[in-house]
Amino acid sequence: MFALTARDLRGRTLDCGAGPASFNAEATEEGHRVVSCDPLYRLSAARIRGRVEETSVTLLANVRENTNRFVWDEIGSVENLWEIRQAAMDRFLDDFLRGLEQGRYREDALPHLGFADGEFDLALCSHLLFLYSDTLSAAFHLAAIREMCRVAGEARVFPLLGAYGEPSPHLEPVIRGLRKLGYGAEKRAVHYEFLRGANEMLAVTGP
Ligand SMILES: C[S@@+](CC[C@H](N)C(=O)[O-])C[C@H]1O[C@@H](n2cnc3c(N)ncnc32)[C@H](O)[C@@H]1O
Hints:
Layout: E1 12-16, H1 23-29, E2 33-37, H2 45-65, H3 78-101, E3 105-106, E4 120-126, H4 138-151, E5 152-158, H5 171-180, E6 184-189, E7 200-205
Parallel strand pairs: 1-2, 1-4, 2-3, 4-5
Antiparallel strand pairs: 5-7, 6-7
Helix pairs in contact: 1-3, 2-3, 4-5
């Protein structure tokens, strides 16, 4: 999703809106320094599991009804998608309590993060900005990306499409807004593509 290389992960990385994903657990095991933040982390592990299982049912029913909106080359089937999601959540939940104690999981929400300026080298955000363009305004997107750039040297956002695979109406205004403020903002192709056409990220550097 973010075309990450070992070099990208050399410093400290912040995953914003990280949810019940296994990135932090896997990266930590490989020796990288990753902090994940999400308002979800105020909940207990049991409540997170319940909530994710509930939303997975709706999400997967949706995917099943719209299989042509997705690229199945790697994942293969809706059943495999379910297994992959479950495995990622299990990996996250196994790591959650230890990670909370170590300060690797933090309850925090965009567009105001409780981290110091420049505390991270890279800030990531997947499946939140642009994907929920119908509920999050352009102003929210601009503030959120600026906040990611306040706490990190570079911000990357994926995907750049709305939830139905439509172009996000916020993307071009947000890019223009960032550039006007002196930020570097560019779309970059990535290899990952599950939602058809969602194969670009936005890479932003501070002014
Ligand atoms: C669809 S999930 C994506 C999780 C993960 N990044 C991934 O790609 O699998 C969206 C996440 O954004 C979190 N979220 C919602 N509002 C947020 C905000 N204002 N700031 C940070 N995270 C937020 C939700 O709690 C949820 O875990």
